[in-house]
Amino acid sequence: MIVIGIDPGLARVGYGVIAVRNRTPEPVCYGCIESGKDQPAATRLLHIYSELTAIIAKYPPAHIAVEKLFFSKNITSAMGVSEARGVILLLAEQQKIPVTEYTPNQVKQAITGSGRADKRQMQEMIKRLLRLEEIPKPDDAADALSIALCHIHILR
Amino acid sequence: MIVIGIDPGLARVGYGVIAVRNRTPEPVCYGCIESGKDQPAATRLLHIYSELTAIIAKYPPAHIAVEKLFFSKNITSAMGVSEARGVILLLAEQQKIPVTEYTPNQVKQAITGSGRADKRQMQEMIKRLLRLEEIPKPDDAADALSIALCHIHILR
Q1: Domain that holds residue A12
Q2: Total-model pTM
Q3: What ipTM does this complex have?
Q4: Residue B156 pLDDT grade (very low, low, confident, very high; cuts 50, 70, 90)
């Protein structure tokens, strides 16, 4: 069973593909979809949609997990993130893939047992849970892997 | 030339289709796409995407104009509106239709000459500019018509 975690954003979308074999999560691939600041929002959103479509075709997931914010200090940034999230939710629904949203606190709680874990602690746990040699980079990809791991944890 | 104005939202998307003939704007149709509160966001976004796809197929527009907020008192509501806007911008880009975003103040300025016009004044102007017998209902449809009229005004 494959689960794809997604950390949405207009400038960068982190993704993490995890396979569960014999109840053990194994990293398949992870990375970041970048889109240029000088491009209109519509162009960036289509780029995100096209890249994610390709990833889903290559690694057909049983589930998609997406980060959801409930508040933000920066409304402009929150609106850009939400535009990207809208496109991601649409794509999942079009492909009939069940999609679940988790807040950052839910993800931290599932991975470390505490909703207050800091970034460093989260990254150490992701490295350990996926038996990686290094902390996955960039941060957006690590966040996406943690969202996928959170969903796998909740599924159990 | 056809221009479609769109007032985005997760619960209600207003749309207004205006044809420009001999430099005169003529209303073609307007209305509101509703989606149930009890449905998941992904389902609502696909419903919005499908309905707008049908409207664009029926009245192929030269331009699409979409309302853009720059601030909001209610972050949860702003995030829902932005998710819908992301889907609308994606659809326009997929169909290669130029899309322009306008703030409410820009729309008010274009229609009434003042960025501070109230709802009643806006609706009276829309009725007059489109030579309608009644103020268009619901409000979301009237807003969408005003966004299309704003774009037609800017194009001149």
Answers
A1: 2-155
A2: 0.94
A3: 0.92
A4: confident
